[in-house]
Amino acid sequence: MIDITELRTTMLDPVVAKELDRFEDGVRRYLAGEIDDDAFRVFRLNQGIYGQRQGGYNQMVRVKVPYGRIEPDQLEMLAYVAETYSRGWGHLTTRQNVQFHFVALEQVPEVLRLLAAVGMTSREACGDTVRNVAGCHLAGACPYEVLDITPWAEAAKSYFLRNPLTQRLPRKFKINFSGCATDCGQAMFNDIGVIGVSRPLPDGSLEPGFRVFFAGGLGANPHPALALEEFTAREDLMPTIEAALRVWSNHGNRDNKLRARMKWLVDTMGIDELRERIFKERKFLIGSSSYPGGLPAAVQEHGDAAAGMGTAVPADLGSAPISGVEFSGLSPYAKWELANVVRGRANGTVSAYAHCRLGEKYRAPGKTKQNDKRTKDKGKSVNRNCNPQAQRSTLQKKQKLD
Predict the structure, then answer these.
(1) Under CATH, what is the fold of the domain 4-130?
(2) DSSP secondary structure of 99-129
(3) What's the gap between Cα 99 and its chain centre?
(4) Please, how many CA atoms are within 13 Å of residue 209, restricted to the half-sphere of its CB?
(5) Amino acid 326: pLDDT
(6) DSSP reduced 3-state for 303
(7) DSSP letter assigned to residue 168
């Protein structure tokens, strides 16, 4: 169990601490009438805080869970925030965020410090920024993945968070990662959708890499994302994403937010010219002082090897053929395991599904519920991801803030 008293005294990262001190001062000045509504709106949105329309100063706090990975102490903190500052529950969004409503504005800085104490943030979960970097809920355990997108999503999250380039974009910018052609991350309606693919080499081996899709989006005028190129090498992925972001930042519509998303550049500029501008930007990005080329530190440290199917014949039923007789003869637990557990045969990871209605997260005595959690346990950490499909209908009815 987390110790709230101890966490309140935790020394935060100096950058984060300064950021939250500044936000708290901004809240104080706003409540004192020293900052007008329009200026404070931009200020709080970049911090991941939405105002509510019921009057007063209640806020919605959107907490990012990058690529759906969450540790046990973080899950406990979300439950504490729900019980102490919100209404006893939170909403899981289709982009792997957790939202808490009716948080008093004067208490928001305290909430953000508690979240930061366990390594969580709401920074840039809203506003004209790079939003939460989402990823496949089976990453690191999917037997079909070409590579594990987990460290790549972590690299993208870390690189663009608080990056000066991303603080005042024309509109929000969404990035999603999938490890295989099944595309659980749903690249087709993201500004940047990254899918793990491979290409054959002259020696007959396969090189893992990516296919990058860009300029997708839904809304009243949906645009399917289009492939930038057939294959993007691993060392070129981060420069490719930054190049696309820079082109859109430079040429996107900053006068009309209804036509500001990257998808509209396809209509105004044309796909061929847009693609060529991204390639040109990527070519000369090497001259940038912050050039992100090569393998990111997260990939070098943790590796991105695929979970794999393995070559041995499994002794359990995890990948055995299913027949009616076989299924009906199993215990209830074995039936659940057969239907809900996905095993990474080569690396020993396990992904398990659990379900809770309405996309809402509660904390009850002795247990915590979360909608469609993925647990990957290798003895060190527990990762839980939201399954977008199970939540979509309810969340779209409740709120369209993403």
Answers:
(1) Alpha-Beta Plaits (3.30.70)
(2) EEEEEEGGGHHHHHHHHHHTT---TTSSSSS
(3) 14
(4) 20
(5) 55
(6) coil
(7) S
